[in-house]
Amino acid sequence: MIQLVEERTDIVIPRRRFTREEYYRIAETGVFDGERVELIEGEVVQMSPIGPAHGEAVTLMAEVLWRLFGEGYRVRVQMPLSLGDSEPEPDVAVVAGKPGDYRDAHPTSAVLVVEVAQSSLDYDRVVKGGLYAQAGIAEYWLVNLEERCVEVYRDPSADRGYRFKRIYTPGETFSCLQKPDSPISVDSVLI
Fold this sequence. Notes:
Layout: H1 20-28, E1 37-40, E2 43-46, H2 52-69, E3 73-77, E4 92-96, E5 112-117, H3 121-134, E6 139-144, E7 149-157, E8 161-168, E9 173-176, E10 179-185
Parallel strand pairs: 5-6
Antiparallel strand pairs: 1-2, 3-4, 4-5, 6-7, 7-8, 9-10
């Protein structure tokens, strides 16, 4: 006899949220050793593994941004940003500062955040993009390896989203809000 189970959407599963301080204390015990995780809105989230195409795209983007920004800025690769009850680790973040400024604490904002995605596209668009917008980060780029384009998001809003989105494809150029006269070729950051 086959029994049908009624689908319910009103079930609430209790979750334990962590502060950044608790997250670091847990990490210091070695619980996450060998795992790629980040803290998103108080929850520990597993990150996708870094495949070769992802790693190369991160390297290309970081090199472009190091040349573009220079003195007065730090280009951080896969390092945390402290955003309230979240501590995401964007693939690349450009933050104002000089060597030593972040020795004792991670930055709490960025001029630009970049995520490189293939299997995590929806997560990076919706969850991480919303998080960056809520934190007031003026510009967010998503290097979309699946569709071979760069998605540029600007004008963060309080409702956890960006009001501006433009997609750039191979053969096109785009620029950063902070460096509008320095075009970047899509081809230079896609492999």
